Amino acid sequence: MRVGIIAENILENLALKLGFVPTPLGETLFGSILVRTIMVGTKVGIFEALASSSLTAQDVARSCGIHPGATSKLLNALVGSKLLCVSGNCYSLSRVARKWLLKESPKSQYDSVLFGLVEAEIITRLEDFIYSGEPLNVHPDFDVSESSSEMRSLYQRGMCSRAKLSAGEVARRIILNKGASQMLDIGGSHGYYSVAICRRYPNLHAVILDLPSAVKQAAPILAEEKMGEQVIHWSGNALTEDLGEDKYDLVFISQLVHHFNESLNRALIQRVVRALRPGGTLVIQELIRREKPDQGGQFGALLDLFFALTSDAGTWTHQEMASWQRDAGLIPQKPIWLRTMPGVGQQIAMKPVKQQFKTLDLIQNLKSQIQNKSEVYK
Ligand SMILES: C[S@@+](CC[C@H](N)C(=O)[O-])C[C@H]1O[C@@H](n2cnc3c(N)ncnc32)[C@H](O)[C@@H]1O
Q1: N or C: which end of the chain has fewer CB atoms below 10 A?
Q2: 138 falls within a domain
Q3: pLDDT in tens, 302-353
Q4: What are the O-methyltransferase C-terminal domain coordinates in residue numbering (predicted)?
């Protein structure tokens, strides 16, 4: 899947296929206007205003407290972009807007789209980065002084709305032993993945480790799920906290390793291995970068650039993550691609069961004893 110019009839389709359409022009000129039109439309409340009935531009302007003339232009731009419909002089929501942009929709991306305004500011600094190679280090939770609490809260809510798209599938894909009781969700913020996994495994208890500033904003989001003591937060830095030893049946790390460079990630995985119980599972879930940029995967490649700008890091391939797991003593499993989140995958690995090794050692010992004895009797 990728973002780009979409043909609306056979002729345009043909022109696109034959390379007659100046796609870079369309993607830059219209792409940048489209991005801000959707974000501003969401922020000023256009979609909420139209949630229960169709309205004229004047009514929408009154309801949102915005300028009537400018509102007409914005509404027409949203009609052209298939987010609104118009009949006579009344505007209504398209199916797409109703499903993804309304605050109360079960699949709502409202907060996520609003957080896009912050991301859009960050990306304006790309050119400086390309010249200097100096990352901004602007992760919303890294620098408390630079990011307002509203921005950090928006970040957590935005992450949660993205997580809700795939949490059901994620919970279904994670296979645990019946006796599994302890889960650690590193960089888990809102905790929605832990909630979904614990609902699937009612005997499982999850601890969500995240930075103190993030936990402050994420706690009310988690509280809405009413999981009580089954899913709790732990304020701390995953890079420095003692994660313990033989404690967890499942360690889940979603969308965190793109904030760290390779050596930080390798060190983290080694500490995770110590924290896992024998037979335990590590799931790293990320927007995956393809091994080669021409293998498709525009999202992974674009975010690789974005995270290099924000955090001196980037997206990782399944193979890179599997190598951290293997080198730390885990047994990596086959790469997984999520169906509900295009471009996102899981790299799962198991901690070997010591007992297995003991049994294997025992068999090996017996074999060599038998061999030795038969040598003696020869
Ligand atoms: C992109 S969000 C992912 C949230 C969630 N796991 C998900 O997939 O929706 C990254 C999270 O990692 C947290 N984080 C970043 N650095 C961290 C660190 N050193 N220790 C703990 N958490 C960290 C951030 O605060 C943020 O909540």
Answers
A1: C
A2: no
A3: 988 998 898 878 899 999 999 999 999 999 999 999 999 988 999 999 999 9
A4: 141-315
Cβ-in-10-Å burial (0-12, 13-18, 19+) of 329 comes to: middle
For residue 19, which amino acid is it?
G
Is the shortest distance between the CB of 111 and ligand 1 below 6 Å?
Answer: no
For residue 87, list its beta bridge partners: 90
Over the stretch 192-245, which tens digit does the pLDDT of each residue have? Answer: 999 999 999 999 999 999 999 899 999 999 999 999 999 999 999 999 999 999
Amino acid (one-letter) located at 141: D
Task: Answer yes or no: are the C-beta atoms of 304 and 369 closer than 8 Å.
Answer: no
- Does 368 fall in a domain? no
Q: How far is the CA of 238 from the centre of ligand 1 (A)?
A: 9
Domain total of the chain? 2
Find out whether the beta carbon of 163 lies less than 6 Å from any atom of ligand 1: yes
265 lines ligand 1 (CB under 6 A): no
CATH number, domain of 185, equals: 3.40.50.150
Pair (176, 283) in one structural domain: yes
CA of 36 to the centre of ligand 1 (A): 26
Put simply, whether the predicted model's pTM sits higher than 0.90 gets the answer: no
Name the residue type at position 253: I
Q: Is 345 inside a domain boundary?
A: yes
Q: Is residue 372 a part of any domain in this protein?
A: no
